[in-house]
Amino acid sequence: MRTIAVYPGSFDPPTVGHLDIIDRSSRVYSRVIVAVARNIRKNVWFTPAERMAMLRKLTRTYTNVEIDSFRGLLVDYARDKGAHVVMRGLRAISDFEYEFQMAHMNKKLASEVDTVFMMTGERYSYISSNIVKEIASFGGKIDDLVPPLVKKEVLKKIEKRRKA
Amino acid sequence: MRTIAVYPGSFDPPTVGHLDIIDRSSRVYSRVIVAVARNIRKNVWFTPAERMAMLRKLTRTYTNVEIDSFRGLLVDYARDKGAHVVMRGLRAISDFEYEFQMAHMNKKLASEVDTVFMMTGERYSYISSNIVKEIASFGGKIDDLVPPLVKKEVLKKIEKRRKA
Amino acid sequence: MRTIAVYPGSFDPPTVGHLDIIDRSSRVYSRVIVAVARNIRKNVWFTPAERMAMLRKLTRTYTNVEIDSFRGLLVDYARDKGAHVVMRGLRAISDFEYEFQMAHMNKKLASEVDTVFMMTGERYSYISSNIVKEIASFGGKIDDLVPPLVKKEVLKKIEKRRKA
Amino acid sequence: MRTIAVYPGSFDPPTVGHLDIIDRSSRVYSRVIVAVARNIRKNVWFTPAERMAMLRKLTRTYTNVEIDSFRGLLVDYARDKGAHVVMRGLRAISDFEYEFQMAHMNKKLASEVDTVFMMTGERYSYISSNIVKEIASFGGKIDDLVPPLVKKEVLKKIEKRRKA
Amino acid sequence: MRTIAVYPGSFDPPTVGHLDIIDRSSRVYSRVIVAVARNIRKNVWFTPAERMAMLRKLTRTYTNVEIDSFRGLLVDYARDKGAHVVMRGLRAISDFEYEFQMAHMNKKLASEVDTVFMMTGERYSYISSNIVKEIASFGGKIDDLVPPLVKKEVLKKIEKRRKA
Amino acid sequence: MRTIAVYPGSFDPPTVGHLDIIDRSSRVYSRVIVAVARNIRKNVWFTPAERMAMLRKLTRTYTNVEIDSFRGLLVDYARDKGAHVVMRGLRAISDFEYEFQMAHMNKKLASEVDTVFMMTGERYSYISSNIVKEIASFGGKIDDLVPPLVKKEVLKKIEKRRKA
Prior knowledge:
5-stranded parallel sheet, alpha/beta, homohexamer, about 160 residues, about 45% helix, Rossmann fold
């Protein structure tokens, strides 16, 4: 069976938690499309192009992972791609509630696409893109939270913002 | 990619919610092994053989679904079967907490088997085997909760218990 | 509009939290039927008759509150009584999950009976019949948890159990 | 007993979930006042007048439902109206937490007004005004989420915004 | 053992709930540093200096409580102060989730500082600085939510805003 | 300030999660009394004496940790010991709810003893004594869940049970 999975997110920036989900998805689905959301609103540091570039470098060694972006309704995008599942990481209760609502709504809007969840690894359960940005902007260490290449981009961005 | 999924449970008896998860799993995994837990303890009405027989009849039309049973640690069973994922249905917060703990523990015990979750369909979110047994034993209607063949077996069991 | 409410529970024994819900229900519904569940299983200290006797004394001053008991499915009982709503107190998350499941199930079984909820008063949020029994059996003070008449019955019961 | 219930909300726009709660409230309370909150802040699409007009058309057939609006503290409004209960729909955990806090606070501010809750019907549990607006603005179908008349108003609003 | 505790927060304004935590912390730790966060963003009414002045007056009688402020990462501040624990109040599930994430992150960033939690007293469980501001701005009574001196400052602030 | 902490539990058997809390408590309180509950009921494998012996060996190197046991109400025990705080580990939502109820109840019964919480370390969040027993009885590996000395005792106990 050839199952296509879409893994959507803002990835602003990608964290080690995201990479864990990508790695695990790549082992159980034939094709994994990491889909950068273009229409997120607040507290965005990186352009969709920058986020896609980072993800491409980080997933270079996976032959069945590709990076893309989307605008509009996720289910429309997933259907266009012929995806069978939408992949989501679950961290905590508040995640759970929101994801539950979204999964039901997506099922309603496109019954042929199913949402499946993976629990975020315990080591990654407290990591989020927002926490990475918050810690980095106060000068804290983010070495355990993001891969080295993302760390470099985050620090560059902070440098630029300071000068601006 | 040939992904093998194990869907474990007590299925005492199987409900329409279980069948929903089996149906959806069968669409995204190459092979789905429904695994009846033999070592459950309390409030069991059906023998493992009876539960397996019901599941076999209910999944007869799926070419990639098979029915089996296991005793002992789920991860050992999953590893023996060469499974890549353990499939679980998520209904609510209390489910979530327990499943979260189990998923981490299973990952620890067998890192090559990953747990993935599907949200139970909204129509099935209040259904469980225990509720089926409770309602049926008070003479309530269970037509929307289990397939006709399971209903018949449940009523037979109640009849038998009454005579005993 | 004459709205009849059923307030079901085990009331083993009645606590100040139960009385708070009865008092508040009596102000918004024409008739409140406090319904003692006969078919509860574990850790029961008082017979249905004893629980009903305590509740009758405690609600003597309410002209629109009556005490009854039931066996079997709550919705069947509520329908028999011509009730429009089933009243439930909500204390915490775990309550919420269970009550949510029950409310949906009851709605399914008897669509003309609706479940409505009142939040337990903050002062009562940590009180339950089980905690009353646990504290009392270790010799702790339960004066703030139950009315004086219930306290007397609880202590009598402990005395009896000690002798047995 | 004549019980007056206030059902407050932003209703921006009204959904089938809101109408379910209005319908069920109208069966158990003598008079139901649907109260549009004027002082909501962010992401508002419809003026209070527009929201009230939609609600009036949608509840035309109920003889004991009326539409109003309020500014300021809900409990002050409820007290002014002589209301006995504030009616709220509960969907999920996050709702529960917030509503719990509000119910206690309202009780404190006006002890004669009690908050009662109804669980949102399972079919409506993933629907919210914000999700309606999000889906509609991406061109998704909202036919199952709002009544036809609301759908028309939402599409008109999107048309206008596009031109602006 | 001389244990130093940091109790961080925005205290905009301090509530009776905050004072309860300060009081209880002062009984179990040798030194309690109440640390006003300078870098909070939205809906701030009081300057850090104003918040510190209120806290100083309110804790005047405690010999082991001092008032300070910080900017940047909490763990860096706690480490600078030689603190052994960060003290947090827990009110509800949503608090819990956020605090859980923060506690793990702080532990990671500074393993020598541990986060400990006290449950907010039941009487204070619905109180927050934001609710105080919301109620006050609608003309509601806040006498039970904040000490008299804070009430005065809140009303002054509202007066000023009205004129502005 | 000399703060005495009681850390109660069943410790049947002690896990690496328990030892983490003991270690962290010993750093912030002058004296830590690990108190084995004698009155637990179901699924107990070890006698109080056996549990205390294991804990004594495991905490031998801590000069301010002592092992004791109690029967009856925890608050009575804590008061007898002159304790200022009861220490609890928090793992997850369901823990949270139960602990919340207990903390309020204990505060009510003995206002001079306060309950404080530490989040279980992320590595330990899925570990409990019951899970250790369940995995071990199915022949699974428990090396990461308990110290070597506890592992030996658990395996001995299983051997004995098999023969019985």
